[in-house]
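ok so dumb question maybe but i'm new to this and my supervisor (M.) told me to 'just get the structure for Glyoxal reductase' and walked off. so i did the thing. is this what she meant?? sequence i used:
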Amino acid sequence: KTTLLTLADGQQMPQEGFGLYKVTGQQTISAAIASAYQAGYRLFDTAQLYQNEAEVGQALADLRVPREELFVTTKVAEENQGYQRTIASVKDSLHKLQLDYVNLLMIHWPIERAFFDSWQALIDLKKAGLTKSIGVSNFQMIHLQYLATQASELPVVNQIERHPRLNQAPLVKFDREHGIVTQAWSPLGRGTILANPVLKQIGDHHHKSPAQVVLRWHLQSGVAFIPKSVHQARIEQNMDIYDFELTADEMAKIDALNDFHRTGKEPALVYEYNKKW
Ligand code: A2P
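this is what came out, is it supposed to look like this??
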């Protein structure tokens, strides 16, 4: 159902995916992934930090679909950064996921100095065929600029917190100018924005829920996004956004909801930490 985006390395990535942060337990994960697959999701996003790679791997195996149908992404945890640790941890991730390769491998958070060595490891892991594409998560412009000048290749995806209360316009623009697809985590602001009257009013106009309005806003913004839910009806609802269109005026109204509200970790702290170099 969802659009395919062509990444800078030529690989194709579904614009909408299924997030698995904080989804735990084999039964819950299996049910969520089965519902999501049924509803049309093909991208499944996990991370070493989520501690659910083994359960996600089992749930994906249980789908019994050709590997080429799935787009699986994982991320290297902070504690596994550095060249050797990155290589070893990714092999461990693949083992847990029951996969020969992932489609997209990302550095989860930029860690002082270590992120550059981790990035070299990702480049080599791609050469070795253990991932199709390499990207980063939670990188600020300064980190991307560093890679742009020091590394032999740039990430093709930057996964960041993005929703109407934190629309990240400057970083999304920077990513785009560098051929990097922005992928939104917590695209619904962890549900905290859904009571907003502006979203409700726009939704009523289109006979859609506030969540569907927000996801459609991501879609029309040209970014990728990975909503999550453990409820089948919501999993389906979040894919049911391809039969309506927001007007330019509605898009602008949603853009105007930005108030820099974060649901997650403050990357400015990471930035301060990194300022040393
Ligand atoms: P639940 O899993 O109970 O359905 P985000 O993707 O921004 O992190 O937001 C995920 C949160 O939003 C989860 O708590 C999820 O709850 C909730 N959620 C997901 N989809 C919807 C929806 N369509 N309507 C309302 N809440 C939703």
